[in-house]
Amino acid sequence: MFYIFCPYCGEHREEEEFHPKGQAHISRPEDPEATSDEEWGDYLFFRDNPRGVHHELWVHAVGCRKFFNITRHTVSYEILEVYKMGEQPSITAENYAAQQGAASADKERNASQAKHQEGVRA
Amino acid sequence: MSQPNRLKTGGRVDRSRQLTFTFNGQRYQGHPGDTLASALLANGVDIVNRSFKYSRPRGIVAAGAEEPNGIVQLGSTEAGQVPNVRATQQALYQDLSARSTNGWPNVQRDLMGLVGKLGGQFMPPGFYYKTFMAPASMWLTYEKYIRKAAGLGRSPTENDPDIYDHRHQHCDVLVVGAGPAGLSAALAAGRAGARVILVDEQEEMGGSLLSSRESIDDAPATTWVEKVLKELSELEHVTLMPRTTANGYHDHNFVTLHERCTEHLADLAPRAGGRRQVRSRMHRVRAGQVVLASGAHERPLVYAGNDVPGNMLAGAVSTYIRRYGVAPGNRLVLSTSNDDGYRSALDWAEAGREVVAIADARQNPDGELVEQARAKGIQIIAGSAVIEARGDKRVAAAKVAKIDIEGFKVTGPVEELACDTIASSGGFSPVVHLASHTGSRPTWNEELLGFMPSPVKGMTPTGGAHGVYALGQVIADGFKAGSAAGEACGFERQDASLPKVDERREGAAVALYQVPHQKATLRGPKQFVDMQNDVTAAAIELATREGFESIEHVKRYTAMGFGTDQGKLGNINGMAIAARCLGRTIPEVGTTVFRPNYTPVSFGAIVGRHCGELFDPERYTAMHQWHVENGAEFEDVGQWKRPWYFPRTVNGKTETMHEAVARECSAVREKVGILDASTLGKIDIQGPDAREFLGRVYTNKWAKLAPGRVRYGLMCKDDGMVFDDGTTSCLAENHFLMTTSTGGAATVLEWLEIWHQTEWPELDVYFNSVTDHWATMTVTGPEARKLMAELTDIDLDKDSFKFMDWREGKVAGVPARVFRISFTGELAYEINVQANYAMHVWKKLFAHGDKYGLTPYGTETMHVLRAEKGFIIAGQDTDGSVTPEDLGMHWAIGYDKPNSWIGKRALTRPDTKRTDRKQMVGLKPKDPSVVLEEGAQIVFDPNHAIPMPMKGHVTSSYYSPTLQSGFALAVVMGGHQKMGETVYLPMVDGQVHEAEIVSPIFLDPKGERQNV
After folding, report:
1. Which of B552, B553, B757 lies nearest to residue A66, judging by beta carbons?
2. Contact B214, B471 (CB under 8 A)
3. Residue B694 contacts residue B775 (beta carbons within 8 Å)
4. For FRET with B659, which of A82, B19, B228, B1009 sits at 20 to 30 Å CA-CA?
């Protein structure tokens, strides 16, 4: 169960106070009528499913009812950052990879491990 | 003779007191301080169970959580039955009653054992899959018997009278395990002032120190334990929790602890102060830092016959002698790959029993412990191992031979040594279970020959769990970990003042897992890897030959590491064997994932107080008590308790639901009825842009709705599908009251918020839930106006207070909002009053309503009445794939609104424009006595070969007392163009119902009755 910092309440609270609302930064086309069916379909139905850094929209549903964004690592589930609506993340997949590059020896070892240790998880 | 294996002295048991217990109906004696396992061993009970698959006799192997065989059913009464208890973890108490979980008719004479013996060869891995899968239809029959034969205990058939608790806790540092590392870590963090929780799964804290040969500060190790525990108990911010297992390690340092409060005292929790005590408690702890001091499990060696009772872990032998004063046999042969195993031989010899020989797999063993054994004159056979244990119900001899580990073969002659106990040690595996619960895969350390925990944020492994085994280093490592954890939480680093521990010169260990045998693994006698699941080395080899290369697949095919065992004893050996067969290294093969819970947790503890009435919160309306007093049957709608119907009792006969609903329907259609509609979601919307906002979230127009007026609206998602509906009233120019379906209240509020906060933050509008603030009662029927007139100052004239108007005034003397909206199709007034006035108003309505035949009705009647009018229930008649056009509600779609309201764009996609979409229609069964089944599939051609093309389904179906017929709402492909056509509904029992497609409005299509 996650431990989430609400940027509006300024406190860590238990996950059960929050609802996840999917991928962050999906904005509705300015003029929906001007979009093609394909563009509209992309907006409606297609979402990223990255292994690694992911930006998500959450709401402090039984707290302040405010929506905010979380940058979360989908493998370790670590919450790297929370930021308010309208703000941009400071940690992204790109700069996170660069930052981790420093410890690249470690990473390579883990990656080779991962290759062999991949398996069905049930 | 009583307790033949109990030593005269030594151990931590209280010999001055006797405890009587029964095992499989036989009475035995033990002492306080015993576990069930130590007491059984003291009494010379060799066989504690029959194995899972082959039904082989099994004895105690270990002394802790890793025990695979000693799994018992506990409880002297039916209600107190507890399955899956490890005898090694269960403290002995007076009158404890335990049984083996397997074995029929009993463990000593087991008939299934014959099947195991004869059928052994015929039960390879995947046996059940291969044998019982055909014909598929018979699986359920097979399964019943297989499960019966293979169970690990049974659940009680009576209710558990005990109570269980949950507790939520926070701490700076959670230390898991109170052995040398954990105690030391807790001390460091505790001295720094951190809030520390120290948990340990055993009866006493101290871990390995409770049976250690070593001294700390020139005193027995237990003296140091007592000293540390005393200091910790005096620290205000430190909580000590013995008998508490950290069972699950979840995201962000969330750890579940299972504290067993009374399970060491009696079957059922004893009473204290007239109340039953809490039997066990689940702690949900959010820790700043976790120090994992869970120690290490000793690995047994895998040799033939290693499951015959009398085969034990070397460390367990020491524990039974030193901690419990029990020597579990008379003549010992030790097979070891390392120095640590020697401790068992030394302890054995010091207990006055005979050590026949030590088979050491190393060519030149030379550590300090080895020298001590030599000094005692114990025979050490270097470069050898026990390759086979002989014996049936107890070890009779050990076959020892020289082995070539690299070449995996026996190189010398086989010597048979008579003995009754074989101890084995293949080194240690850090207990990485908790660390891997978080998804972090352990990494192999070639030097330490074990998997180490991989980094988890906020977690520090220490001591045995960290691959540190020498006592002095363990204590130092623990202190360092505890200090660092405290520091990470903002406390000062502590300088270590470590106790003095003599360093021991240790010889290098050798990597030995499966011991070679003269015969090939597949042909030789069984060598067990996972005793709880009866997985042999041959089974793993066979699995790899059959092409299972991933360790996860091998696990699933053989069942290795399944169940409550979770691979504690056998997993590393299994991986080593798979690696050998596949010609890979252990890290290449990798490990499977360990899952919560570490050891079984009773359902009671998981459930806590959330059972019976407290299972889920119940929401009551302000009139609830009246409903109870007037005999309402209730229906759960979300968490709400809503009156379902109000059966009357006349001449001692209580109406059926059918009779009650028929009476309630007639009352509404002919006189006047009343419904408690308080559960409808109500959202107060205010702000200068409220009207603009409504226009964007509803499909229809809101620009011109004047104060005093009400409008029905449909809400779509942006995919054009209806997800909720309701009315919204204009209270003032910038003030609206929205109603939602009962179930949709929270969802709709969140929906409004997400659009406002993420897409249109520039709109000045505010939302608030007022569901609980206003109670709602619907007075409806031809006599409604007469009744209202007696109680309100509002002008009820049909031309000044029209249908879809609302007015403010007083009803029964209290401030009220009255809405002329109708969900029944009759003249209706929805009265909203402040919830705390509601009971008064409700009762007043009855006081005046009697003469008009005022009848309370429930949700069932509400459904019949609304369906007769073709009014939908979002979520029942819609399922997220229905557009407003599919519902035939073109009138509620404002295509020409200036904005692109939510859902509009999607309604012009090719898919939403299809003419063969499932569309809402009414169905009239040809036989009026038939009430179609909700969810029943609709076909056009009942003679079509199966599978028939399914053309729609029934969404709502009732019997209408007004129409004197069954009727239904349904969605049918292209239904709007099929009025008058006949469709068919084939049922499971072979009947085929016929029905005619009609308008979904069965009654008063022009709406004249509600408009009066």
Report:
1. B757
2. yes
3. no
4. B1009
> DSSP of B401-413, one letter per residue?
EEEETTTTEE-S-
* Of the partner residues B251, B905, B906, the one whose CB lies closest to the CB of residue A1: B251
Determine how β-strand B278-292 pairs with β-strand B296-298: unpaired
Cβ–Cβ below 8 Å for B553 and A119: yes
- The shortest C-alpha distance from B562 to chain A (Å) reads 12
Around Cβ A77, how many Cβ atoms within 10 Å?
14
Q: Which domains does chain B have, with CATH numbers?
A: 1-161 (3.10.20.440), 163-296+431-488 (3.50.50.60), 300-426 (3.50.50.60), 520-584 (1.10.10.1100), 616-675+773-799+808-869 (3.30.1360.120), 913-1012 (2.40.30.110)
Distance, CA of B936 to CA of B752 (rounded, Å): 34
Q: Do A76 and B757 touch (CB under 8 A)?
A: no
Q: Other C-beta atoms within 10 Å of B157: how many?
A: 8
Interface of B with A (CB under 8 A): 250-254, 286, 438-441, 443, 454, 457, 550-553, 556, 587-593, 718-719, 750, 753-754, 757-759, 761, 900, 904-906, 909-910
What is the identity of the amino acid at B584? Answer: R
Q: Give the CA radius of gyration of chain B.
A: 37
Question: Under 8 Å CB-to-CB from B603, ≥6 apart: which residues?
Answer: none
CA distance A66 to chain B (A): 8
- Record: contact A121-B552, CB cut-off 8 A: yes
Alpha-helical regions (H) of B34-88: 36-42
Inspect the interface and report whether the beta carbons of B757 and A67 lie closer than 8 Å. Answer: yes
Option in B588, B591, B754 nearest A67 (CB): B754
For the domain covering A3-89, report its CATH number. 3.30.2270.10
Domain boundaries, chain A: 3-89, 92-122
Average pLDDT per consecutive 10 residues, chain B (1012 residues; last block may be shorter): 89 96 96 98 95 88 94 92 92 96 62 51 58 56 55 82 94 98 98 98 96 95 97 97 96 96 93 91 97 97 97 98 97 97 97 98 96 97 97 97 95 97 97 91 90 92 96 97 97 90 92 96 94 92 92 88 82 93 91 85 92 92 98 95 96 95 97 97 98 97 96 96 96 97 92 97 97 97 97 96 97 98 97 98 98 97 98 95 96 93 94 95 97 97 94 98 97 97 95 97 94 89
Q: Mapped to the 3 state alphabet, what secondary structure does chain A carry?
A: CCEEEECCCCEEEEHHHCEEEEECCCCCCCCHHHCCHHHHHHHHHCCCCCCCEEEEEEECCCCCCCEEEEEEECCCCCEEEEEECCCCCCCCHHHHHHHHHCCHHHHHHHHHHHHHHCCCCC
Beta bridge partners of A6: A11
Q: Hey, are the CB atoms on B439 and A67 less than 8 Å from each other?
A: no
Rounded Cα distance, B468 and B473, in Å: 7
For residue A100, count other CB atoms closer than 10 A to its CB.
12
Give A23's Cβ-side CA count (13 Å radius).
14
Put simply, the answer to whether B593 touches A113 (Cβ < 8 Å) is no
ipTM summary value: 0.88
Nearest CA-CA partner of B472 in B276, B216, B238: B216
- Within 10 Å of residue B25's Cβ, how many Cβ atoms? 8
The partner residue sitting opposite A35, judged by closest CB among B440, B551, B905, is B905
Q: Name the residue in chain B with its Cα closest to that of A42.
A: B719
Cα distance between residue B4 and residue B540, in whole Å: 39
A32: nearest CA partner in chain B: B905
Burial label for A80, CB within 10 Å (0-12, 13-18, 19+), is middle
Out of B443, B551, B761, name the one closest to residue A113 (CB): B443
pTM of the model: 0.89
B793 min Cα distance to partner chain A (Å): 39
